[in-house]
């Protein structure tokens, strides 16, 4: 991969032969674990302006109708998060001259609070082509990371690194996006809830975009593309935390996080509450398009699951595109096939499925190998499909199983012959990811028509049926029982390799918990990694394994978009308890007793067994259950009058004894603990603070 400095530009054609479709990755880390940003993409014409507001893509308008641009969402990386964007350059309209890739922060946060800001461009096979780092971020609330632009018949990439102090509104108006004026609303305490991005920053009035001196691209790059036009005046900023809105007209970039999808065409979602059943009693089961009770063997489950998924992908373009865009597939007509016989030596091989996408006479093909019910993928089988794909000029091999992939840890080891001119990429999907995407579409983002929404509902019902074998990650692996027994009888030694295996599976479990919770809420939910970029994931897991061996604890953190803190999850294998907790800062300039009373009032609907503890800087203060503190919030205050900096809220649950996801299983107990903590505690705090609990 070629590294370039800020302001430099490079031809994508010169970097790789397979750059007709690229995946752009924006990444950062946060020492606090709470830092985040929203990615956006703007399509600009030759004058440097959007053709209409529809050329602005962001979290509530994530994809172009022609498939040229699609926001793939956040994915956990080896260190921090990565936000990925698929761009099919062949599908970009000819009157689009530039594609600007930006990100913005909210709630008073600044890009200087984030570390390791970086952008990477990869080809359709996932091979990184070019990247650059931003090391001068400070008070900016929006950043243009880079841009793709036409130069004759080819596309080039420029590393921009231009910051705005006026946030998303300043960036948007710079390129001709209209910002909607909305009245300010009071927050829960009656104070004005103003978007920090719209407050007066004291910027130079002659530079309404609020850029820092020297923030524009370098003079060497300037002649190759027109400079942005002067910014339009921003007349008003949106209010923070204003809740959800029904689908409506074209997307408005000035609106706040948490609003419902606003697209040029109304999308169909299923109602949150099902209509009244016409069944006489509970024994009547609704008819299903994809029945599962007759499945009796793993082979039957694999064949049925593959056919069900691939058929729905071909019929519901939103799902098909969502699942294949990140694998480098173009936007086009999709057909899917099952049990296709392909020559391979003395006997033909039969992959479980084949996906073909056609655009402008060019075919993209992926072979699919499926496993269900926790069965592992076989390396020799996948290797055979990779060899077939290379010989026949296919682009990808996709594995689909209950397992969850981790960065730095391959699901199956396959050797790709680097001497071959044609590159074959190997990708992995978990059934949990498929269910996550289906749930996002039918519950939150919407699809083109009611029939497609119904098909996705039937797919989701099939995946969630106990007999489908498609429940996602459901086994902590063969090392789980000996490691847990070794912790209980104190015979587990430091450096035991089995502890690293348990840590890896714990990471898979946390990622699956995030997928399920994020799909249900319509919010981004991700594990938190505090490691610096470039750190060795294996070393990080070995450190966690040392903690497991010496203290008997597995720990993780996750962040749900729209909430104010990081949720900590700790499984203590010595005590058999799962603890979920979050730290809530005390309001600034508030009297300690007033802060304690306010917290108890916000938690009026929280579980009575919630543990609340006051924080005194680095020290821990008084604590008690919510049931005991409700009549006497003052019991949270230290007797010596030490200042209270915040409060720690915790729920404790007994964990299951088995490694699987049965009712008493460890996996089920962790999933239930996070679910109960979010809905019983976090959601109430967010609603009371004016933060959205979900996107509808």
Describe the structure.
- This protein has 696 residues and is of the alpha+beta class.
- Helix content is 24%, strand content 24%.
- It has helices spanning 12-15, 167-174, 298-315, 317-324, 379-392, 431-445, 450-464, 480-488, 497-521, 537-551, 592-602, 626-629, 666-688, and strands at 2-3, 9-11, 21-29, 38-44, 56-57, 69-76, 81-88, 98-104, 115-122, 128-134, 142-151, 154-164, 333-338, 353-359, 362-370, 396-401, 425-430, 525-527, 553-560, 567-572, 577-585, 611-616, 619-625, 646-654.
- The strands form four sheets. A seven-stranded antiparallel beta sheet has the order 18-19-20-21-24-22-23.
- The longest helix has 25 residues, at 497-521.
- It is globular.
The radius of gyration is 26 Å
Range of helix content: 10-25%
Instruction: Assess the beta-strand content as a share of residues.
Output: 15-25%
Strand count, sense and barrel status of the largest sheet are:
7 strands, antiparallel
Number of strands: 24
Write out the strand line-up for the largest beta sheet, numbering strands in chain order.
18-19-20-21-24-22-23
What form results from the Cα inertia axes? globular
Terminal CA distance: 40 Å
């Amino acid at each position: 991969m070629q590294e370039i400095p800020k302001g430099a530009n490079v031809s994508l054609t010169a970097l790789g032969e397979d750059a007709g479709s690229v995946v752009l990755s924006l990444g950062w880390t946060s020492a606090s674990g709470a830092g985040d940003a929203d990615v956006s993409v703007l399509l600009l014409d030759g004058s440097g302006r959007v053709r209409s507001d529809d050329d602005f893509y962001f979290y509530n308008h994530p994809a172009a109708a022609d498939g040229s641009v699609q926001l793939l969402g956040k994915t956990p990386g080896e260190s921090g998060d990565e936000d990925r964007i698929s761009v099919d350059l062949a599908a970009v309209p000819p009157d689009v001259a530039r594609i600007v890739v930006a990100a913005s922060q909210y709630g008073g946060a600044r890009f200087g609070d984030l570390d390791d800001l970086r952008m990477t461009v990869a080809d359709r096979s996932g091979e990184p082509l070019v990247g650059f780092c931003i090391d001068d971020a400070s008070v900016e609330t929006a950043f243009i990371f880079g841009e793709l632009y036409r130069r004759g018949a080819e596309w080039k990439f420029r590393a921009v690194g231009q910051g705005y102090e006026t946030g998303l509104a300043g960036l948007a108006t710079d390129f001709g996006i209209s910002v909607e004026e909305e009245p300010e609303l009071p927050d829960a305490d009656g104070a004005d809830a103003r978007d920090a991005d719209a407050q007066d920053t004291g910027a130079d009035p002659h530079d309404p975009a609020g850029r820092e001196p020297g923030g524009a691209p370098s003079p060497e790059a300037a002649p190759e593309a027109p400079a942005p036009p002067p910014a339009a005046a921003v007349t008003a900023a949106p209010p923070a935390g204003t809740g959800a809105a029904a689908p409506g007209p074209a997307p408005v970039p000035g609106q706040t996080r948490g609003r419902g999808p606003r697209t040029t065409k109304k999308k169909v979602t299923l109602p949150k509450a099902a209509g009244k059943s016409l069944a006489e009693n509970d024994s009547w089961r609704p008819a299903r398009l994809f029945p599962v009770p007759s499945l009796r063997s793993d082979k039957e489950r694999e064949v049925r699951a593959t056919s069900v998924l691939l058929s729905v992908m071909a019929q519901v373009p939103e799902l098909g595109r969502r699942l294949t865009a990140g694998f480098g597939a173009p936007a086009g007509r999709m057909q899917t096939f099952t049990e296709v016989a392909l020559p391979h030596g003395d006997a033909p091989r039969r992959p479980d499925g084949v996906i073909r996408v056609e655009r402008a006479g060019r075919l993209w093909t992926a072979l699919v190998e499926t496993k269900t019910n926790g069965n592992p993928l076989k390396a020799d089988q996948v290797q055979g499909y990779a060899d077939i794909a290379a010989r026949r000029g296919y682009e990808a091999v996709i594995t689909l199983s209950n397992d969850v992939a981790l960065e730095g840890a391959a699901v199956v080891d396959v050797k790709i012959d680097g001497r071959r001119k044609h590159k074959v990429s190997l990708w992995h999907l978990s059934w949990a990811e498929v269910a996550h995407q289906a749930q996002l579409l039918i519950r939150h983002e919407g699809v083109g028509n009611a029939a497609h929404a119904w098909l996705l509902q039937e797919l989701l019902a099939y995946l969630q049926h106990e007999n489908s074998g498609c429940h996602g990650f459901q086994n902590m692996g063969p090392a789980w029982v000996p490691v847990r027994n070794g912790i209980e009888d104190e015979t587990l030694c430091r450096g035991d390799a089995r502890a690293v295996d348990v840590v890896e599976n714990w990471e898979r479990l946390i990622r699956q918990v995030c997928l399920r919770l994020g799909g249900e809420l319509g919010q981004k939910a991700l594990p938190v990694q505090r490691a610096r970029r470039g750190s060795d994931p294996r070393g990080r897991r070995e450190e966690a394994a040392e903690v497991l061996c010496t203290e008997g604890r597995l720990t993780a953190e996750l962040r749900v978009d729209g909430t104010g803190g990081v949720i900590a999850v700790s499984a203590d294998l010595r005590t058999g308890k799962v603890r979920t907790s979050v730290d809530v800062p005390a309001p600034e300039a508030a009297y300690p007793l007033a802060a304690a009373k306010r917290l108890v009032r916000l938690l009026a609907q929280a579980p009575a067994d919630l543990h609340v503890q006051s924080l005194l800087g680095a020290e821990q203060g008084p604590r008690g259950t919510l049931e005991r503190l409700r009549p006497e919030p003052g019991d949270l205050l230290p007797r010596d009058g030490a200042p209270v900096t915040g409060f720690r809220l915790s729920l404790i649950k007994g964990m299951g004894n088995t490694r699987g996801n049965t009712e008493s299983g460890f996996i089920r107990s962790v999933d239930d603990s996070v679910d109960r903590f979010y809905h019983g505690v976090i959601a109430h705090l967010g609603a009371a603070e004016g933060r959205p609990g979900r996107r509808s």
